[in-house]
């Protein structure tokens, strides 16, 4: 990975900040975009080499089943992030609460 001293902390900050935003339901779709990019990067950089058997982190592991086994959490996070990107936050989120508040204010002004 190029510049691990830089990208490691940047990745950690993105995971913490975007994860907190998603948990709160605040700017959910916006926060899901870096998480999708993060999980795609994690799969491409650390897990994809398992398919060809030259992954330095996973000695002795190669092939489809080892790739799927090691990638299961990354794939789950990727699917969850894509879902949140497409659907958005739920009814109990801060996004929904702010939308209701804006709608109420718009109705009271008219």
Structure description:
It is a single chain. This protein has 110 residues and is mainly alpha-helical. Helix 1 packs antiparallel against helix 2 and helix 2 packs antiparallel against helix 4. The protein is elongated and about 65 Å long. 15% of the residues are buried. The model has no long low-confidence stretch (mean pLDDT 91).
Overview in brief:
With 110 residues, the protein is mostly helical. 77% of the residues lie in helices and 0% in strands.
Number of helices: 5
Q: Portion of residues in helices? A: over 70%
Task: Give, in order, the helices and strands.
Answer: HHHHH
- Inertia-based shape: elongated
Alpha-carbon distance between the termini? 56 Å
Question: How much strand?
Answer: under 5%
**Largest sheet, strands/sense/barrel:** none
Number of strands: 0
Average pLDDT for all residues: 91
Radius of gyration, CA atoms, in whole angstroms: 19 Å
Unreliable residue runs: none
- Helix-strand makeup class: mainly alpha
For this entry, give a set of tags.
single chain, 110 residues, mainly alpha, elongated
Architecture blueprint of SSEs:
Layout: H1 4-24, H2 28-47, H3 49-52, H4 64-87, H5 94-109
């Amino acid at each position: 990975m190029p510049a691990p001293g830089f990208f490691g902390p940047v990745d950690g900050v993105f995971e913490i900040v975007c994860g907190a935003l998603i948990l709160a339901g605040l700017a959910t779709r916006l926060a899901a975009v870096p998480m999708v990019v993060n999980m795609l990067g994690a799969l491409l950089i650390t897990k994809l080499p398992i398919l060809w058997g030259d992954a330095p982190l996973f000695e002795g592991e190669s092939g489809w089943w080892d790739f799927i086994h090691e990638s299961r959490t990354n794939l789950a996070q990727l699917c969850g992030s894509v879902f949140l990107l497409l659907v958005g936050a739920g009814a109990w989120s801060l996004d929904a609460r702010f939308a209701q508040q804006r709608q109420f204010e718009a109705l009271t002004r008219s």
